[in-house]
Structure formats: structure tokens, C-alpha cells
Structures
1.
Amino acid sequence: MVEPVTDSVTKVAYVFPGQGSQAVGMGYDLFQNSREAKEVFEEADEALGIPISRLCFEGPEDELRKTINSQPAILIASIACLRAATGINGTLRPAFVAGHSLGEYTALVVANVLDFTDAVRLVRERGRLMYEAGIARPGSMAAIIGLDDETVDEVCRETGAQIANFNCSGQVVVSGTKEALALTMDLAQSRGAVGVVPLEVSGAFHSELMQPAVEGMNQAISQLDFRSPQIPIVANCTARPITTSDEVKEELVRQLCNCVQWQPSVEYMIEAGVSTFIEIGPGIVLSKLIKRISRGAKILNMGDQESIQATSQSL
């Protein structure tokens, strides 16, 4: 358990959720009540050439859940949230930004590495490539609850699965072929896991089975203008800040087949003096994880009009 460093100046980190946080209806109240948020959704529809805002607001859920749709939709809803809050919290500059997997792309927009429309198009292409990689090399993911990291690592070495996410103490996500996952879940339970939860995903994300997506991502990235971050981005793969455009490009490709180091990322920010985390976007998945990593951290959320107002009153 890592506790925040006490400092006379509050350091804030913005964190952005990844795939799985989508929900039908997300962003609709912001679209109705915030001109800035409305413009985000309209800009995204135009950039993609499809009514993705309608998919966010109305579903259907099974269509929104598809990787090619959920990834850009979550990014769009997260940026809409942030821009809706700008008038309230416009002077609050984070010391760091970080995102969980897909959420790292939202962080790129906030750190001014990519323009919003470029990020939306890139994320939709990422979703397409990851879905196709899942067809070429089928697999899935599962959460292992209640085992220490070392035991999960030992289990994976025996079964051929890979650790995909170090989320928090006692919660590790693994990726692999369906056969490897079945063995991993059985073996994890025999080693004392409290629970094993198969995830509804279209592939073995953050594992070597995503290798077919790498070439396409390299091509997509090479066509865009990347700038150096104006705010340090704590990278998924290293749990350390990246501060140049070249580092960002390397991270985005590396992230496809490698583990998301979420707990170490949060611990790094806390050790660097961050005492307040603001999760921006749909859901509160990251808030729950951060609370388990550090009970002393202040955790706020901005996911809709009501939570934006509540957060503004807490800062």
C-alpha cells in the first residue's frame, strides 16, 4: 500500500479509462447541457464518417461493445467530459496524465500529442486491427482475483498464458489462447485464487497473440503528426513518464503485445507527489483500483454533468 506524499501544493493526475467502461447513454447529458461536449461528439461523427455519437447515446449495446466501436466511443466520451468541465476546472493543470490501455490515447489528446480527430481515427483503426488479430490468432482474457503477482506469473509460465494487466494488489488480468486460459483459471483456483472471471473481449489483448496488429499500427502511426507531450504521460509499459514524440510512438506499438503496468504507474505518481486522482470518462473502474492501491489518495470522478459539478466543489 503506497500513501501519497504530503505537500503544501496539491499535485493532481488525470486518469482515463479503457475498454470495458463503455455504457449505452454515456455522454448524452453532456451533449444536451454543454456546448463544448456537443462539439466533441459532432467533430467525432464528422471525423469517422459514421454517427458514433448516436451509438454512444442509444446503442445497441452489442454494437457499442465491439472493439472497433467501443475504443473510439470511450475516447470521445472522455474528451467530451473533460471539455465540458473546462469552464469549471480550466486552471487545474495535472502533474501527470495516464490512461489504462485505450485510455492512454485519451491522455495523448490531453497532453497535446495528437489532435482529437487524429486520435479518434487512430483508435478506431487500433480497434479494427486488434479485432482482426483476434481472428487471426484467437484468444481471450480472464481476471485472476486474490493471488499475488508472483503466483500468477508462475501459473502463466506453466500454461503459456501472459499477464496482460497488473491492475492492483490481488487483481491481475491474463491473456492467451482459450486452451491456455482454461488451464490458467483451473490452476489459479487450485493455487488459492478467490475468483477467476473470463472477460468479454474479442482477443487476447496485451499479449503476443496481438502481433498481427503491429505492422498496421506502425503504418497508421507513421501517417500522423505526433508532438512531444506538454504534460508527462506515465506509460503503460514502463510505469514511467514519456516526454518525447518518439517515446510515445514506441509506447503505442509496444503496448499492443505487452502488459499494462497500472499499479506501478499509480505508485510512481504517488511517489512523485500526486495526492489527487481525477478519473475522467465513463465508469469508475480506475477509481476503484486506485483506492485499493492507496487508501490515502483523494479520488474524484468526472463522467457526467452531476459528477463534474461534484468534482468542481471538491477542488
Note: Residues 139-198 form a domain with the Alpha-Beta Plaits fold (CATH 3.30.70.250).
2.
Amino acid sequence: MDSADLRQLAETTRSRREAGIALLLSSSILALFFFIQIHQEKPAAQPAITVATSTAPDAFAHIQIDGKAAIVLDLATGETLYAYNADAQLPLASLTKLLTVYAAFSELSPTTPITIPVDATHVDAPRAFSAGQVFTLSDLARLTLTASLNDGATAIALATAARENNSPHAMLAGAASALNLAQTYAVNGSGLDVSTSVSGGYGSARDLARLAGALVYKAPLVAAATTNASTEAVAADGKRFIVKNTDPIVNTIPRLLLSKTGYTDLAGGNLALVFDAGIEHPIAVVVLGSSKNARFTDSSTLIAATFAHFAGVASL
């Protein structure tokens, strides 16, 4: 085979190789096209989205109360289990005493001696003390909250304000501010109406629920005294005092941690309660603006609904 033939063979071989490469490239492009088409026409299946819905009955769904405002606040989690006008600012009456005692325990020790001043013996009833009698803060607070004593609350407020070198009004405002109680302020330490149009203290059901919980934490022995039908203490002069609880339903509430009543013409019937729904699971129930008797039935209704809520049933 001469050189011309060799050149012709090489040229033919090169042309065939180039044609083969072109064919292979075209096939690859065509395969890629079909791959893309198939995956466009059949997109990957999307996972199903399941929306969780609660099947537990609402134990508070049909609650009816006489109060103008109420709340059931889970103090362990911060969850509001029930609310009705819970942020409305209303007269507090003797629930103001909770703020007074909280302020005192924030400033004074439980053993601080408190002398009953003359001014305290002139406030409206209920009263129990004489001017000059001396109690420890803890004993005076137990008697005062259990029987809602206006002379005791006045003495505690004056002593705490004096320690702060402040007025009672400013002292109580400071205590409310420290707890971030935005709707709460007090004109006096007892909560007695100042006039026919001005209450001694104002606040919301939500604020009072948080305040009651804070007092249980700060002064548990004082709070515990309010859960009994009566409590007693001895003054420095040896005189023994036994007072009855203003809350007649304390013995009907399981694991009660605190009870405080309040009633004036402006406020109507108020009640603040803290109880354990379980181990270290405190719940606060507050009713404001009810009647003198209905505050207790309102609260009992809310407590029953709370236990039903945790049991996962509509009612007990």
C-alpha cells in the first residue's frame, strides 16, 4: 500500500471516529433531555402535613360567674387557664392588704417588732388591737390577713414606710412596681374606701393573681395561716389573740396555700386564692367585683373547672 493509500485510510478512520464521537454526544444529550422530562412530569412526592388538634374538652367553656372580672393563672407555667376581664382595673378592697404585707416582707425581717400606733386604732372595723401593743411582723401579718384587720394593715404599712423613710402611698407604689403590677396601686394599706367614689386600692385580677403567688413564695408561713378557719398569736405583753378567717370555704379547697377576702361598697365581693393542683404546681384564682356571697361560689366554680382541666374532662 503506497503513501497515497495510507493517507486515504487515515482520513477515513479519522472521519469515522469523529462521527462516532458526535453520535455519542448526541445520544448523551438526548438521554439527559429525557431524564429531565421524566422528573419534571413526575415530581417527588411531598410528605403529608398533619395538623394536631386537641380532643380534650374545655373545662372552662361554659363557666358563668357573677364577678366583673376573674382569672385562673397557672403560676408554675405562667399559662392563663381562664380569663374574664382579667386586665380590667377594679377596686380591690382588702385584697390591698396582700400588697401591704408583701411590701413589708420585702423591707423588714419576720421578727421585726411592729407597734400598733394610735392612728391605726381609729380606722374602720374590723379591728382587734390597742395602741401600744407590739407584735412581730410575722404574727401581726398572720392575724391581719386571716381576719382582714384594718388596724393591723395600717400598722404594718406605717412601719414599713417609716423604715423606707417614705409615705405609705409611695412605699406601696414601689412594691407594685417591683412586681411589675401595671394595673395596681394603693391609696392606703388597708384597702378601705377613701370616699364614696375612691377606693383604697385598685388592680386587675391578673395582677392580684401574680401578687398572691409572690406572697406565697416570700412568706409561706404567713400565707399558710390564711388557709385555716382561725389563727392565733401572742403580743409582746403576753396577750393572746385568736381570730376567725373571713373566708368560710377554706376547708373545702384541697391543698390551699393562701386565701384573702375583700369587700367594700365600691369593690363588691373580692377573693384571691392560691392552691396546689399537683406537686409544686400552684394555681391562683382571683374574682373581683362579685357579690358578698357569690365571690365564694364563683371561686368554687373556677376551682372545680381547674381540677377538671387537669383531669382532661369537661367537669367533675
Note: The domain at 69-311 is CATH 3.40.710.10 (Beta-lactamase).
3.
Amino acid sequence: MNIYFETSLNVVLKELFDVNVSVISETTTTGGSINETSILQLDNDQKVFIKKNKSSLKNMFKAEAEGLLAMSEIEGGPRIPGIMAVIQNNDYQYLILEAIEQHKPGDDFWQKFGKSLANMHKKKFSQYGFEIDNYIGATEQKNQFENDWISFFREHRLGYQSKLAFDSGLISLSEFKKFEEFQNRLSEYIEKDNFYPSLLHGDLWSGNYMVDENGNPVLIDPAVYYGDAEADLAMTMLFGRFSEEFYQSYFDTFGPPDNGFEDRMEIYQLYHLLNHLNLFGKSYLSACLKIVNKFS
């Protein structure tokens, strides 16, 4: 079924349910600063989750849908909300997903989460990147395919973000050169026995997972690409770690980390800190420079 439409919400709802349906109520949900999100109760006893954005972030929901679809194909991976429609018209863009109720995690939630994420990371691809550029927050995320992980992370992650920060006046010329020097020596700082392109969520922090009615992990709001699996783990550790049961279960399934894991975590976190610098301002600059100075 086609999920991409250039029409109105009402027309798409009719096509989805094969009858005229009306919205009885709309309950606003929280958690995002970029999009308006809500649960629509329809008069056919169905509920849908909807994200709405009237900004100029081109193809944001189309790219998000492509990422959700890629993750949904992983056998034994986390649950992914079913995609019902992506709507783009002159006024708004909408993403309609199945409505999943948030529940409390059970005793085995973190074990399930670690194992399912490891299963997703075992999904190998031939190159680093993704079929479509997408967004990390409101920042465009460049996903041009590369054969080499260091090159990809240098050019399309750290290099892209530091150039954005310099162009917007958030870092000085001397600071920008310091970032460039750091990026040019990445191969010295990121070392392990084996890199391969894993399917990543891309923005895996505590606000981007849910617990469904069966106690299973659900991944939402992705910034999907193929990269080093540890880049996902780094984000889980940036603003407060997940449960230690999660990491134990993950490594039991995926295999133990190579030497230098902790250093790589900081370097991969630098990407997200630079993005926060670009999104939220100079309060994040000192954290970025602390990592660069540690390795320089």
C-alpha cells in the first residue's frame, strides 16, 4: 500500500479506513520540541498517532518513515510503530502511525531491550550511510554512502556539525581549526579490530523508546543510518545511562566490546554534543572542547 500522499488529512483517513471517518477527540502528547504530536480518536473506534509539522524541514517525515521501515524489517529487533501514512502538502507535513500506549517496564524489560537492539545491530550493510538524508532533531543529517567508517564519521558527522557551528558563529576560527585537526586524526583515536555497517537508530536516548502493552521495547523518532554499532550505545550513555541490565544483555547477544570502548564512546558522543551546540547554543561548547582537548 502506498503510504505517501499529497493531499489533506481527511482524504487520507478515508483511504486508510475505506469509509468516511471523523475525529472525535485529539489528545496532545508530550516529548518533542520540533513537532506537534497527538492521539486522534476516530468515530470508527480506531486511534492513530499523528505528528504534524508546518516548518520548512523538507521531507522530514518521509525520511523518518524510511528509517522506521528499515528497523521494522529486523527479525528479533525492537518493536517499531506501524506506518500508516506520510502526508505532504503546501501547508503541513503529517506522519500517521499506529497508536501504542506507554506502559511501565516489567522485570525483564531491560534484558529484552538489550537483546533486541543487539539483534538490530547485527543487521549488516555493504556501506556506511543511508538511502536518504534525514534529521537529527531539527538538524539535517547527511547520509551519503561511504565505504570507510572513519571517513563517513569524519565528513558527514563531526565535520558537517563543526562547519555548521562555525558558519553560524557558535565557534571561533581557532576552535574550528582545533576541531578540524581532531577530525583529521580520527583514525588514531577510533581503533578496534572490526568495523562494519550496522543498522542504527541514530538518536537513542531515553525519550526515544517506549514500553508496549506486553512489556516490549518500542523505538520511536529515529535518525537511522548504517554505522558502527557503538555509536548507538554512546548516545544511551550521554545523558544518563540505561540500566546496566540493558548493557549486559546487549553484549551477551552482540559480543563483548573491543579495547578502547570508553574512549570511542566519548568521541561518538561528540557528534550529539555538537548537534546540541547547533540546536541550543553555546552552553554545549565547553563539553565539546573538553573531548577534543582530551585527545589532542
Note: The chain has two domains: 4-98, 109-295.
4.
Amino acid sequence: MVAQIALSFVLQVVFTVGLIFLFGWLISLCNRRFYANFGKFGRAVCYITGIVGTPVHELSHAFFCVLFGHRITEMRLFRISDDGTLGYVNHSYDRKNLYQQTGNFFIGVAPIVVISALLYGLACWLLPDFIAAVNALASSADVESMEGLFAGMGDVFFTFFVSAAQWQWWVFLAVGLLLSLHMTLSGADIRNALTGLVILLFLLLLTDIVLGAVSAAGLQTFTGWFVSAGTCMLCFLSLALVVSLLGVGFSALFRFLFGRKRA
């Protein structure tokens, strides 16, 4: 039973926190490379994309602040500043309140979660075949057998790239790039998320221990929910990464064509 609880806990963490931080890091690397490829125009491009992406980023923080009972003391959805800060949300909370402390994690990682959800909603409208493939993969995810996950992911993204023959795909790519370019978490976002992470993991482990003691089947079902939801999130975090990589390719082409001329 101890081994089952430990395995369930690891799977739950990997398919939630692990995915969020891994893909958040990979997407941030892509985004930095995207702007760097524009050279001296990088800041201007950041401002242009930030008109759309930054308000979404900050509103996602604000949404989870409200959800977890934090008081928003100051908020700027978009601004042009010398220090490069395009927006911010300042908030306060009761440090003795466990729920509000746990909320720090969700508030910190909110842009990744919300923008992934927005990509899902946008794809539901523009790329229904892709969404059908994602939903089929998520519904077939099995906590006991994960070897088919990556093969399934390959099929899902084959469906995505096949859709490039349609104009809807290009609209999705353009809007998705504006959003994914501003999924990147700031240092303050990460520090805020870490303050709630320890409590979140403790509560999750406690839940697993209780479920494991009461019902092994209940623990497996609980973990299955995480795996299914995590598989769906994996698809859309991967999608955001693919969109970011395509953006890097576009910016690299710009650098190749115009950077050489300036040189």
C-alpha cells in the first residue's frame, strides 16, 4: 500500500506541477530566443505582442487572486517602462489562512494554466478535429499503462499539422503565438508559486494517504483523474511549445533575411 501511495503521489505531481514547470521553462527559452532574433527591434516586437498577451497574463493572476480570496492592491494590465515590466498584479493575503497560502501556487503559475485553457477554447472553435484527437487521448489515458501516451501525442500533433491546409490553422497560430509569447513566468511569479507549492504537495500527499487507507480503488480513481486531466494539459502545453517553436523559426528567418543585410 505504501508503494501504491508513493506511486500515485509521484504521478499526480508529475502530471500537474511537473508539467507546468517543465513546459513553462521550455516556453520561456523559446520566447527569449524569439525576441533575441529581432535584435534591436526585439523590444518593439515585445511591446506589440504585449498589447494582447500582457493583459491576458495579468488578468490570469488577478482571476486566481479573486478565486483564492487574495486582495488585489494594485494592477497594471499593460505599460511601457524602462525596466521592461509590461504589467503587474500586487496582492495581499492572510498568511494564517491555509487556503489563501495554497492559492499562491495557482496565482503564480496562472498564466500557464489560463493561456493553455484559452488555447483549448480557441482550438475548439477553429480546429475541431484536433480537439477530438486530444479528447480521445485524454479519455484513453490509463494510470496502469502509459507506454502509449507518446504515440498518442504523435497522432494528435499529426492531426494538428494536417490542419495547416486550412485558413483556421493560420488564425490559430497567429493568436496562439501572441498568447504563448506571454506565458513566461517572471521571477516574482515563480517565487510566489513556490510559497504555496509546499503546502499544496503536503495536502495532496495527505489526501493520498487517507484514500489509500480507506480504499485502494478510490486512490486509483483519484490518480486517474489527474492522469486524464494532465494528459489533456500535456497536449496543450505541448501545443503552446510547438507554437513558440514555430515563432522562433519565423524570427530566425527574419534574422537571416534582414540581420545579414544590416551586417
Note: The chain is about 80% helix and 5% strand.
